[in-house]
Amino acid sequence: MAKQILLNMITQRAVEEGIAMEIGKTSPQYFEACSLIEMNEHDIDELGITPNTNVKVTSESGEVIVKAVIARQTCYKGLCHIRQGVWANQVVPPRTQSTGEPQYSGFPVIVEPAPNEKIKTALECVQGAVGLWIGDE
């Protein structure tokens, strides 16, 4: 069985994401800026992977394949970040606590190695979320 760890997810904004968003959400720049999970280096070690390995992130709401990287900003052991946007939205719980905003931060996710899995493009993620993605059949 593959190694798994339970982490606390915090979605967040980044300069790279903002620049890439201006270029376009289907651009290679947006894919590179947002289809990743920033993790503490000890959590990456605990998973038994090296940085830049694809991982599967699963929450109560769904799952997504992203690339695991050592966090570029403060990220304590047990925390992880996915930049707000298409890939994060695959796992963000819809709960709003009566605020009208989904729970973008502070929810549990399971992260496990997925080195042979493909990271979907932004368009594939959106199509899958609304039932239009037919996959690689």
UniProtKB/TrEMBL annotation:
GO molecular-function terms, A-Z: molybdopterin cofactor binding; oxidoreductase activity
- Highest rank taxon of the organism: Archaea
* Gene3D superfamilies per record: 2.40.40.20
Q: Start and end of every Molybdopterin dinucleotide-binding domain?
A: 8-106
**UniProt-recorded name of the protein:** Molybdopterin dinucleotide-binding region
Instruction: Tell me which species this is from.
Output: Methanolacinia petrolearia (strain DSM 11571 / OCM 486 / SEBR 4847)
